[in-house]
Write a structure and sequence with these properties.
heterodimer, A: alpha+beta, OB fold (Dihydrolipoamide Acetyltransferase, E2P), six-stranded antiparallel β-sheet, three-stranded antiparallel β-sheet, 26% helix, globular, B: alpha+beta, Gyrase A, domain 2, Alpha-Beta Plaits, Elongation Factor Tu (Ef-tu), domain 3, 3 domains, six-stranded mixed β-sheet, six-stranded antiparallel β-barrel, 19 strands, 21% helix
Chain lengths: 144, 377
């Protein structure tokens, strides 16, 4: 699974590319895989304020809708206009053409709560292990 | 959570497993859209072993089934299947089912996984003399082989001439050495078969079918594709379009009801509702603005609530956003414009004829180029 170095990651599986006060935000490879085929993307308007840990948009697969949470607070400078017509771009290129919004950060301190690539890799490993433990517990329950 | 006999096969195939009606089921393997399109073009193999099976036997079996269902069971010949509904005393739908007549006095009833215990109790509570009702859900596995090349894949695996099995008919014969009830039924709107086999034979049968079908484009398909396929055809899903507070007249299933057959549970309520007219109707919606209408989203006309969505998705075949929902009867006309409330926004929609895609696949090839990207993936 691809987790590029140099990006920051949130527990809600968003990635952030930081260039000065500008943050580009998308969802991770792990998130797009979990969602499956993405068929609709809802993005904020330019000029809108997004608030850390609040939903700023939504990603819908054929089966389900998922909120996308703001990893940082800020003002939306740019949105990826190609996504509404080609939402599958997020499946194809989560860290590149699948970017969602570019915001001017309100407070760079927000970044402290985000993970490095290495930390994020550990985080999703842990999540997978938790899932498998659940499976194992269930299997044991069945045997009893 | 319960597991089907194919659980290990799904894990091996890389399926994503989710909880459905108390069962751990594959929602997808490679992807819902790829699987959906494979079924429309070639074929898909679904594990639907979670579905329940109830057997009714005895001299009074036909009379018993007549009493509990709305369709005319006396019309089913041996080797024939029939779509049918169990109603409660208020005319609400207890379940939608398929009856298979195996002998003059022996029916196999395929019921929804979520309802199998409830249905069994409901039937048992109505048993009179000369009837034996048995819940055999754990004896039968069920595989659905669906798609235009399904017959071509299945024929070499059985000595039974599949051409002799007409739509909504079945035969009991061997498939790849395993005894099966081979039914020409399904839930995708494509040609194909549903195979009922012994629980312990399922894994071998699954592997043999996939081996035989892969060169023709057969893929394993999950419940995700099963749902989008049935939705394009506007087949109701229990718990969404149908429940105990919904009558078949509201759900557009009047064609299933045979008032002329005589008494059955719910008949009087239905007759009264038919005379007075229903208050709400199930309609098909196509969204005009971007968005996806999900179950329970409100439907509005000029700002006032007129109903709710029951199922909605992006149609992989049409590449349009489609939904089913109940609206006030006076608003249920083709081309009527209304709004879907999605996350506090109103999204325009219009009522369209059902099904969303025709049985000849008329609209099926629309915007295929884009869809193909997923198949190649």
């Amino acid at each position: 699974m691809e987790i590029p170095e140099g990006l920051k990651y949130s527990k809600e599986h968003e990635w952030v590319l930081i260039e000065g006060k500008i943050a580009t935000i998308g969802i991770t490879e792990y998130a797009q895989e979990e969602l499956g085929d993405i068929v609709f993307v809802e993005l904020p308007e330019i000029g809108e304020k997004i608030v850390k840990d609040d939903p700023f948009g939504a990603v819908e697969s054929v089966k389900a809708v998922s909120d996308v949470y703001a990893p940082v607070s800020g003002t939306v400078l740019e949105v990826n206009d190609a996504l509404p017509d080609s939402p599958e771009t997020i499946n194809d290129d989560a860290y590149g053409d699948g970017w969602m919004v570019r915001v001017e950060m309100q407070d760079v301190d927000d970044l402290k709560d985000l993970m490095t690539a290495e930390e994020y890799a550990e985080y999703i490993e842990q999540q997978k292990e938790d899932d498998e433990e659940e499976d194992d517990e269930e299997a044991e329950d069945e045997e009893e | 959570m319960k597991r089907t006999p194919l659980y290990a096969a799904h894990r091996r195939a890389g399926a994503r497993l989710v909880e459905f009606a108390g069962w751990e089921m594959p929602v997808q393997y490679r992807g819902v859209i790829a699987e959906h399109l494979a079924v429309r073009r070639y074929a898909g193999l679904f594990d639907v072993s979670h579905m329940g099976e109830i057997e009714v036997r005895g001299a009074a079996a036909e009379a018993f089934c007549q009493r509990l269902t709305v369709n005319d069971v006396s019309r089913i010949k041996i080797g024939q299947a029939q779509y049918n509904l169990l109603l409660n005393d208020d005319g609400g739908v207890v379940d939608d089912v398929i009856l298979y007549r195996r002998q003059p006095d022996h029916f196999l009833i395929c019921v929804n996984a979520s309802n199998s215990d409830k249905d069994f109790q409901w039937m048992r509570s109505h048993v009179t003399g000369g009837i034996d009702v048995e819940n055999v859900s754990e004896q039968y596995a069920q595989l659905a082989l669906q798609g235009p090349v399904a017959e071509k894949i299945l024929q070499p695996l059985t000595t039974h001439n599949l051409g002799d099995i007409k739509s909504f008919h079945f035969a009991e014969d061997g498939v790849a050495g395993k005894r099966c009830l081979i039914a020409r039924t399904g839930y995708t709107g494509e040609a194909g078969f549903e195979l009922y086999c012994d629980w312990h034979d399922a894994e071998k049968l699954w592997d043999d079918l996939l081996d035989a079908g892969s060169p023709s484009g057969l893929v394993p398909a999950g419940l995700g594709a099963r749902d989008t396929l049935r939705l394009e055809k506007a087949y109701p899903l229990y718990g969404h379009e149908l429940d105990e507070t919904t009558t078949p007249l509201e759900a557009g299933l009047e064609w299933v009801i045979k008032f002329s057959k005589g008494s059955f549970i719910g008949r009087e309520v239905l007759l009264r509702q038919k005379q007075q007219g229903v208050k709400r109707k199930l309609v098909g919606l196509e969204l005009i603005d971007p968005g996806i209408a999900r179950s329970e989203y409100p439907l509005l006309k000029d700002g006032r609530s007129i109903g709710r969505v029951t199922s909605g998705t992006r149609s992989p075949t049409l590449d349009r956003s489609i939904a089913l929902g109940y609206v006030a009867a006076e608003e249920a006309r083709i081309d009527n414009r209304l709004d879907v409330e999605i996350r506090n926004k109103t999204i325009r929609a219009r009522i369209v004829p059902l099904p969303f895609i025709a049985s000849d696949g008329g609209a099926v090839r629309h915007k295929e180029e884009k869809s193909w990207k997923f198949l190649k993936g």
